[in-house]
Amino acid sequence: MKINKTFIEGLLIFEPNLFEDDRGYFMEHYNKKVFDEIISVNFVQDNESTSVNGVIRGLHFQMPPHAQAKLIRCVDGVILDVVVDIRKDSKTYGKYFSVQLSSENKKQLFVPMGFAHGFQVLSDKAIVNYKVDNFYNLESESGIIWNDKDLSIPWKKNIKKVISKKDLELLPFKNLKFYFS
Fold first, then answer.
1. Is 60 annotated in the active site?
2. Is residue 54 part of a domain?
3. Does residue 180 form part of some domain?
4. What are phi and psi of 100, to 5 degrees?
5. 136 catalytic, yes or no?
């Protein structure tokens, strides 16, 4: 498995080894031994969502003590995956990172605690799977509005945006209370 660091500390892209032949392919998308050598995380739950073209989900996070690290992959389709560093003491606080995840490139994004996460579907539909290291807690749910002026995230402009009512009510980054340090 190839591991790529990003300009944001702790944010990693995993590229699984793919073994192909005339039957199809085989890959390991998660191996605890490999991950334990690189990051200290104990995944406790797998989540999956399906969305249609243009859907933007996010930017979501869970507040401590229910914060979550995530390992995200797109098992069908293509998404623009976006994270924002909300760790107050980080050198990259308030910076975003984006990467295309797809069923073709098979890349996975590891997102440590202290990030808001979202994605936009670029294909007709997408199935997104993510492992988390803490259980969901409704009272700890929070987020940042997807089109925050200060963050200027480059969502794909040629796609009609489909956003939930809940996500349209999220606050701007500048109104974020500091939950992570």
1. yes
2. yes
3. no
4. -85, 125
5. no
